[in-house]
Fold this protein.
Amino acid sequence: EVQVVESGGGLEQPGGSLRLSCAASGFTFSSYAMIWVRQAPGKGLEWVSAISGSGGSTYYADSVKGRFTISRDNSKNTLYLQMNSLRAEDTAVYYCAKGAGDDMSAYFHHWGQGTLVTVSS
Amino acid sequence: SYVLTQPPSVSVAPGQTARITCGGNNIGSKSVHWYQQKPGQAPVLVIYYDSDRPSGIPERFSGSNSGNTATLTISRVEAGDEADYYCQVWDSTSDHVVFGGGTKLTVL
């Protein structure tokens, strides 16, 4: 059974850092693109970042470029999102999701339950 | 950057047909995927590659995509279909995943 489970969320002050993790199981992790999507309270889905199966290609939303870094450890079947210089507007539930393949135009079929990040002083 | 436009809300009576649109410049040339999200839950894929349906999704859900508009159609709407629906594409010009703003489906 395919599973992705996020962790690492919590309360952080503006300007601080957090690292989110997404543990994957039930599939050949290195063969699939992965993405991070966030949802601010009461708002819609916002794509944050994406990474190819090998980790060789990474993509970022303009709102996080230069502050967030996506990475993956295919030996540990784990996806990461390093979030630096956090702002209040980064407050959201962060979801990781598995791509249908290594093609970024493919869909995202398996989603985690999300981890809440709150940025506040 | 590429923008997907959805109506904020759609209302329909039980048993009727709901149509949720997703507008974008020449969206017909892109692959559109649709997700359903109920309160407090993660998104669920309901349509992929414009009109394909994942296993476990009722046949009442269908999709189309042409020109500047993609459409998610839900036939014989049930109370359990009440949710937020999002369209999504990959924009190869900007190398961005793009989501529409979402449409809240209300079953009257």
User: Anything to note?
Assistant: Chain B touches chain A through 27 residues (CB under 8 Å). The CA atoms of residues 58 and 81 of chain B lie 11 Å apart.
